[in-house]
């Protein structure tokens, strides 16, 4: 692949690294400023217990953010991630209650999540629908399947073996396994996205699909497999949630897509495709977690919390739109 993907103004190669590093540095400054301000506003903020709670709260969602970020870079979006997370929990939990061991049941749960991604990828790349409509339909269909399987009743999984529960509840020398899994997933995909040639095709496809096709990239295959990857990571998150809570609720994950998309966009992933980093998205997730923790410690109503998160998302999308328009 020797063709160079040009910037829309013809000025040369798009400088993804410089744009990403600026956004990431800005996010780090904002997060540090919030932490300093909250250290004065609440004596409970700068405690290990609070930071551990924040890490636990966004570590599992952070796994889903990884998949969403890569999908946004390729030019797609997935509104069904919350439903897929729930579906993975419900399928795995139902199979466990039917007599299957939890490890096999979990692998099947992740597998069916990947199949959902494959189905969406088919409708996007073969039928020709866009990601938004396809994932919106999948969100409703998959949520309906969760309700059908459970008959609207939460599945109690208190009989899960301790070895399996340790995934979501255990720790290694005081560090929860959930955080360890999260760090490993982030490290692997951040490295691949920055260094692997195969993953650079994601950027080229999202930046200029026609130019990518002319350079020999099979863009439909790239979109298909990235869609599958996003759903697979959502399935993995569902299994971890099941181990953590010891239950599978058919309404779990409703609205999760807002946090996921907000984190990725705040971190620099463009809704127009072609830009974004895993590290930036995780910083976006960290920012939302710090904001949520701050609002809780300041005793702000949960209803205001959702409104504030929505405003943050709107601001991030507006900035992204402005930058994209200026670049064009």
TrEMBL record:
Q: What is its main location?
A: membrane
Listed A to Z, the keywords are:
Cell membrane, Membrane, Transmembrane, Transmembrane helix
User: Which Gene Ontology cellular-component terms appear in the entry?
Assistant: plasma membrane
Q: How does it sit in the membrane?
A: Multi-pass membrane protein
> Pfam families from the xrefs?
BPD_transp_2 (PF02653)
Membrane-spanning parts: 25-45, 51-74, 81-100, 106-129, 136-154, 174-193, 224-245, 278-297
Q: Where in the cell is it found?
A: Cell membrane
Record InterPro entries: ABC_transp_permease (IPR001851)
Q: Name one GO molecular function term.
A: transmembrane transporter activity
Q: Which PANTHER family match?
A: ABC TRANSPORTER PERMEASE PROTEIN YPHD-RELATED-RELATED (PTHR32196)
Q: What is this protein called?
A: ABC transporter permease
Which source organism does the UniProt entry give? Aminobacter anthyllidis
């Amino acid at each position: 692949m020797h063709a160079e993907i040009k910037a829309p103004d013809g000025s040369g190669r798009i400088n993804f690294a410089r744009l990403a590093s600026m956004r990431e540095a800005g996010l780090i400054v904002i997060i540090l400023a919030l932490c300093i301000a909250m250290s004065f506003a609440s004596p409970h903020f700068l405690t290990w217990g609070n930071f551990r709670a924040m890490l636990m709260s966004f570590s599992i969602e952070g796994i889903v953010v990884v998949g969403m970020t890569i999908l946004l870079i390729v030019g797609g979006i997935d509104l069904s991630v919350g439903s897929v997370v729930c579906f993975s929990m419900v399928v795995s939990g139902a199979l466990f209650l039917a007599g299957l061991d939890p490890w096999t049941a979990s692998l099947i749960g992740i597998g069916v999540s990947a199949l959902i991604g494959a189905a969406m990828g088919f409708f996007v790349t073969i039928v020709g629908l866009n990601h938004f409509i396809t994932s919106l339909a999948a969100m409703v269909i998959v949520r309906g399947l969760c309700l059908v399987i459970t008959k609207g009743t939460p599945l109690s999984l208190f009989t899960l073996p301790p070895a399996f529960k340790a995934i979501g509840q255990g720790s290694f020398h005081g560090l929860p396994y959930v955080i360890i899994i999260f760090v490993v997933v982030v490290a692997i995909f951040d490295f691949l996205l920055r260094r692997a040639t195969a993953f650079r095709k994601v950027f080229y496809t999202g930046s200029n699909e026609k130019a990518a096709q002319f350079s020999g990239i099979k863009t439909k295959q790239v979109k298909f497999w990235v869609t599958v990857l996003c759903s697979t990571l959502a399935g993995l998150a569902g299994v971890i949630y099941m181990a953590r809570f010891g239950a599978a609720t058919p309404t779990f994950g409703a609205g999760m897509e807002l946090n996921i998309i907000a984190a990725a966009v705040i971190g620099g992933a463009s809704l127009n495709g072609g830009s974004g980093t895993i590290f930036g998205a995780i910083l976006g997730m960290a920012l939302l977690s710090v904001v949520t923790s701050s609002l809780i410690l300041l005793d702000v109503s949960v209803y205001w919390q959702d409104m504030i998160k929505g405003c943050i998302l709107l601001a991030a999308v507006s900035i992204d739109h402005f930058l994209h328009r200026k670049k064009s």
